[in-house]
Design brief:
The structure holds two protein chains of two kinds.
Chain A lengths: L23 H7 L17 H5 L12 H5 L8 E6 L2 E2 L9 E3 L11 H9 L4 E5 L9 E7 L5 E10 L4 E10 L6 E10 L4 E9 L4 E10 L4 E10 L2 E10 L5 E8 L6 E10 L5 E10 L4 E10 L6 E11 L5 E10 L4 E10 L3 H8 L5 H17 L5 H16 L2
Parallel strand pairs in A: 1-5, 4-6, 5-7, 6-8, 7-9, 8-10, 9-11, 10-12, 11-13, 12-14, 13-15, 14-16, 15-17, 16-18, 17-19
Antiparallel strand pairs in A: 1-2, 3-4
Helix pairs in contact in A: 1-4, 5-6, 6-7
Chain B lengths: L1 E10 L2 E11 L4 E5 L6 H9 L5 E9 L2 E2 L5 H6 L2 E4 L6 E5 H15 L7 H14 L10 E2 L5 H15 L3 E5 L7 H14 L5 E5 L3 H6 L4 E6 L2 E6 L1 H21 L1
Parallel strand pairs in B: 3-10, 3-11, 6-9, 9-10
Antiparallel strand pairs in B: 1-2, 1-4, 4-5, 7-8, 11-12
Classes of the chains: A alpha/beta, B alpha/beta.
Bound molecules: adenosine-5'-triphosphate and magnesium ion.
Magnesium ion binds next to helix 1 of chain B.
């Protein structure tokens, strides 16, 4: 979408020097205020640095196929690349995909969603046709290469009735970069369709805020994996509506913040219809002075009888200066439901560590074995084995470097 | 092979080992018996290098090296093996991957190349037969969901794979049924050579019928208060520990 400067905006963005195009989305955004930690939704994630950052729209093109290929072997995928919020046509194969340039008609009251809705520069519209299978999975790269850039991206993905698709989303920023990636993805899993999204985040020093909104229809299945490997400040919000009977949602994640990184996952699953299942498994491995947040809310509406909702969040702190804030929230208005949630945060299992060492395994290798096993409970759920292997290797590498 | 001199150790300020003296030579089998809580597992853990315990006095020489200065993994690489009284379950780490990592770490310590895959698999097969370990167990996560007896068998299987110089078996017999006890004991006997040694910790004379010790020690409140031959075990079985206590105190 072209950013036109036809209208001026009364209140400039706190962190970016640009004007919004005239639209009701723009007006909507201007009515919202920049979130602070006084806001419950942002209690543990400070955005002060973002607020004072000097950011701009940038059309720098730096990223190469090799950079991407070094992380995920691209030959198995249909590649679509965005850099600093703009489509890299030269690197992308847009077969069956349109560039998104229509404003969503939804008006969000979430600040960053509203921002992206009002000012996004690009994104995809993907519609997987009814009863078809996306044979080559999509590799959707969202990258930031300019340390001063703000990227607003807006994707729409629909899997039509009975269709099946896998999308790998790679969020990427140069290690030294400090841009801001703000993305919104709206997903519509129509009846009896299956969609799996695997999101890899290798975000260097960038700030990344991601909002995902999912509607799941009758007997459809939506699976999401978030692997946050590196990220100075990452916030992922996933909101799922289980709208019709038999809808299924599975949200999984592994986050491995080190140094002074901060990774925050907020999930919200709304059981609206009866006979729906949801499952969440998030695991964190935190080192140095890293901080993590998990907030998982499960809402079970009165009509949502026979709901089955499972949620677990487990964390290992590899240093006593790392901290984790974990908060499961259940709100249940139906009586015939099975819901369970559990949250654990602790040090590495000392007895297990000693057992491995007593068999000759070096302490560092033993830690690696245990941590990889801990993460593998999540990783092994990824249906593509190649990808699962790759993710395991990435996690292992991340751990060994800390 | 092993010389323990005046070893004292404590945990959370509480002294458990109060001056242990023990010498084990190549080719020997020693047994340690003693009432619950007397410090048998503590001794085993201190020898293997568990951090929780603080050694406050004494020294331990293993093959001429000061054992207490080595990291647990280096003690294992030097040839010390502890079969745990309570083997730990490690979900997500497969038995096979674990053993291979262990063997290769020890080989690396000795400056050797990693074990060739074929040789490793052949060894697994051979040693599994030695303790009649069920085939599927090696593919499962380490000890996860194993029965008590299977865990003990798995310890001896690991011992067979690692071929240590000194094996400390902490109550490996408890939890084993009569047949399993015989199989495991036979396994240990087959692994016994004139160059290695075994330290058995047990409550029951029964095990010592299968693995015949050269020496039996009684550990009582953190001290070895009596040492004898294999007959001592029989005597203990008959008379209990009170008898020794009395004779020792009066002596
Ligand atoms: N982590 C710990 N914290 C506090 N006390 C401990 C700890 N570990 C062991 N102890 C104490 O040390 C003493 C010796 O324990 P140990 O396990 O060595 O006994 P044991 O001789 O092996 O007994 P058993 O025959 O029951 O296996 C016990 O009194 C025990 O309670
Ligand atoms: Mg014991």
């Amino acid at each position: 979408m072209e950013l036109t400067q036809t209208t001026i905006v009364a209140k400039p963005l706190p962190f970016a020097d640009f004007v919004l195009p005239e639209s009701k989305q723009g007006q909507n955004f201007l009515n919202l205020s920049f979130p602070t930690t006084r806001n419950e939704y942002w209690k543990y994630t400070r955005l002060g640095k973002l607020k004072t950052a000097k950011l701009k729209i940038s059309q720098t093109s730096n990223i190469t196929v090799e950079t991407i290929n070094n992380i995920v072997a691209i030959d198995r995928y249909q590649l679509v690349v965005f850099e600093n919020g703009f489509l890299r046509n030269d690197l992308s194969d847009l077969t069956g995909i349109e560039e998104n340039n229509t404003l969503s008609n939804k008006l969000s009251n979430e600040y960053f969603t509203a921002l992206s809705d009002a000012s996004f520069t690009s994104g995809i519209n993907l519609k997987v046709k009814a009863n078809t299978v996306l044979t080559k999975p999509l590799l959707l790269v969202n990258s930031s290469s300019d340390p001063e850039s703000i990227s607003n991206i807006n994707h729409n993905i629909t899997t039509q009735q009975g269709s099946e698709a896998m999308v790998c989303m790679l969020d990427l920023a140069a290690a030294e970069g400090s841009g801001f990636l703000n993305s919104v993805t709206r997903i519509n899993a129509e009846s009896s369709s299956n969609l799996e999204i695997v999101n890899l985040q290798v975000l260097g020093k960038a700030t990344a805020i991601q909002n995902i909104y999912v509607d799941v229809a009758e007997d459809a299945s939506f699976k999401h994996f978030g692997f946050s490997l590196i990220g100075q400040l990452t916030r992922n919000n996933i909101n799922v509506n289980l709208n019709k009977t038999g809808a299924y949602a599975e949200l999984n994640g592994v986050y491995v913040p080190s140094g002074s990184q901060h990774i925050d996952n907020h999930t919200y699953i709304d059981h609206i219809a009866p006979n729906c299942n949801s499952s969440e498994l998030y695991r964190g491995i935190l080192s140095n002075t890293a901080t993590g947040v998990f907030n998982g809310k499960v809402m079970v509406r009165q009509a949502a009888q026979k709901t089955n909702a499972f949620q677990a969040n487990n964390n290992i702190l590899l240093s006593d200066k790392a901290t984790m804030n974990s908060k499961p929230e259940l709100e249940i208005y139906a009586d015939d439901v099975k819901c369970s949630h559990g949250s654990t945060t602790g040090q590495m299992d000392k007895d297990a560590l000693f057992y491995l060492q007593a068999r000759g395994i070096k302490k560092t290798a033993a830690v690696k074995l245990l941590v990889t096993a801990f993460a593998d409970d999540v990783v092994s759920r990824v249906s593509d084995e190649h990808l699962a292997e790759l993710i395991n290797a990435m996690i292992e590498k991340q751990i060994s470097e800390n | 092979m092993l010389q323990i001199k005046n070893l004292e150790a404590s945990i959370e300020e509480k002294q458990i080992l109060k001056g242990i003296n023990l010498e084990i030579k190549r080719g020997e089998v020693h047994a340690i018996m003693g009432p619950n809580g007397s410090g048998k597992s503590t001794l085993a853990s201190v020898l293997a290098g568990k951090e929780d315990y603080e050694v406050t006095n004494g020294s331990v020489l293993f093959e001429g090296k000061e054992l207490l200065e080595l990291a647990p993994e280096d003690r294992a690489a030097e040839g010390l093996f502890l079969a745990f009284q309570y083997p730990v379950e490690i979900p997500g780490v497969s038995n096979i991957n674990f053993l291979k990592t262990a063997i290769n770490s020890i080989r690396e310590y000795k400056g050797m190349q990693p074990i060739p895959a074929k040789e490793f698999l052949a060894k697994v097969k051979e040693k599994k037969e030695l303790v009649e370990l069920q085939s599927t167990l090696t593919n499962r996560s380490v000890n996860e969901g194993f029965s008590g007896g299977e865990k003990k068998r798995n310890e001896i299987f690991q011992m067979a794979m690692l071929n240590p110089k000194l094996a400390i078996l902490d109550e490996t017999d408890s939890g084993l049924d009569i047949d399993a006890l015989r199989i495991v004991a036979n396994g240990v006997n087959k692994l016994k050579t004139k160059d290695n040694a075994v330290l058995l910790i047990t409550h029951y004379q029964r095990l010592l019928d299968y693995i015949v010790p050269d020496f039996v020690h009684v550990l009582y409140q953190g001290r070895i208060i009596k040492t004898g031959g294999k007959e001592l075990a029989l005597e203990l079985e008959e008379k209990g520990y009170d008898w020794i206590q009395e004779t020792e105190v009066s002596a």
